[in-house]
Amino acid sequence: MTAVYKFGGASVNSTEAVRNMASIVKRYAGEQLVIVVSAMGKTTNRLEQLVPGVRPRAEHPALLEQLRDYHRQIIGGLFANPQHPVVADFDSLMAQLAEQCDKEPTNYNFDYDQTVCFGELMSTTIISHYLNSIGLENLWVDVRQIICTNQNYREGIVDFEQTEAATRQFMASHANTRTFVTQGFIAGTADGHTTTLGREGSDYSASILSYCLNADRMTIWKDVPGFLNADPKFFPDTVKIEEIPYNEAIELAYYGASVIHPKTVKPIQNKNIELDIKSFVTPEAEGSKIGPFDTIRPLTPLYIVKQNQTLLSILPKDFSFIAEENLQTIFAALAGLNIRVNLMQNSALSFSICIDDNEMLLAGLQEKLGEQFHLRYNRGLKLITIRYYTQEIIDKIVAGRPVLLQQRSRTTTQLIVG
């Protein structure tokens, strides 16, 4: 029996959290486990500031020191021996990171992937050593040698045929190993460069490996009791969803439900693998299940909030209508910069999109489109999606705030609010 477990940053963000994660792993030590781990805590956010060209080089030493201190504190809490091999392995990764972030900027998306990957490499190195030290023997695996993507940096497209072949070959050569520790979020190209699978992509990594391994089940361990109808940070009275059909989960993830990455569900749906979402705080409790169900249970309104959004309006400089050739130019620019559109709407004279706020990518879009189009934007907005809405619910959510754009279908409404 093979199970794939994914632990996110919140589940390994401290010494105590790593110990708790190890206690969960110990519960299932009799199975063959593939453990997929994210970067610790908010490490990826810090690493994004170290991407060449994002911040002045003079700021790098302080940022690197923050990362070093944070991880060293966790290491110190887990290992009594200050000379434990984990220290040398971690220091080696820090030296490689320092060298990477000191390079001259080339292409932002490429530089991003070569830099932020160190978060997962550090977390899995520490966790693998710790599990071995407490008698949970495991093999550390560089997932970049297994999950293969194209060169679409920051949003690598997986070559499933090659990835499945690499997975089977690797597992066949380690048939006697019961536990593997590997990275989420990151992957590799055929020519040896690192790619990433999209922000928060560790869920997707676990799904890819579940597909390739024909896993019996996949579990995502979260700091919430399951798939909630809303983020408890924004809504006080949440409802746990017991069962979610695959297609419903795909819709919710597409709209930005933070509990799973948008691409997570399709691979496991293709192999009919159920996904459990469970709490690492109360691991014995029943969580939520995504699987071949007929309907969502219980049926209740679902709320998704995406913070830090930019509403961008693109207008032709010659005051012509927005025609197909204009849209072709705009979408080519968006694709070239790997900008994901969260919502779009066009009128006769303008094309509006809602995207995650990123100053570097906005500058790149201005460079690509500025000669032909006027670009106007509002930043610091929220995109609120309500599935199974009523007008009463919409009025309550808006609560007098300005609505810059709204779209509705029979089951879903989306609002961009200030």
Spell out the key features of this protein.
418 residues, alpha/beta, VC0802-like, 2 domains, 8-stranded mixed beta sheet, 6-stranded antiparallel beta sheet
Extract low-pLDDT stretches. Answer: none
CATH architecture of the largest domain: 3-Layer(aba) Sandwich
Shape: globular
By CATH, the superfamily of the largest domain comes out as: Acetylglutamate kinase-like
Calculate Rg over CA atoms. 22 Å
Strand content of the residues, in percent?
A: 15-25%
- How many structural domains can be distinguished in the coordinates? 2
Helix content: 25-40%
CATH hierarchy class name of the largest domain: Alpha Beta
* Order of strands in the sheet with most strands: 3-4-2-1-7-11-12-10
What structural class do the secondary elements suggest? alpha/beta
Q: How many strand segments?
A: 18
* CATH topology descriptor of the largest domain: Carbamate kinase
Summary?
The chain has 418 residues and is α/β, with parallel strands linked by helices. The chain is built from 13 helices and 18 strands. The protein folds into two domains: 2-222, Carbamate kinase (3-Layer(aba) Sandwich); 302-417, VC0802-like (2-Layer Sandwich).
Descriptive notes:
Helices cover 37% and strands 24% of the residues. With 418 residues, it is an alpha/beta fold. The protein has two domains: 2-222, Carbamate kinase (3-Layer(aba) Sandwich); 302-417, 2-Layer Sandwich (VC0802-like). An eight-stranded mixed β-sheet has the order 3-4-2-1-7-11-12-10, sandwiched between helices. Strands 14-15-13-16-18-17 form a six-stranded antiparallel β-sheet, covered by helices on one side. Helix 3 (60-78) runs antiparallel to helix 4, helix 4 packs antiparallel against helix 6 (118-133) and helix 7 crosses helix 8. The radius of gyration is 22 Å and the shape is globular. The model has no long low-confidence stretch (mean pLDDT 94).
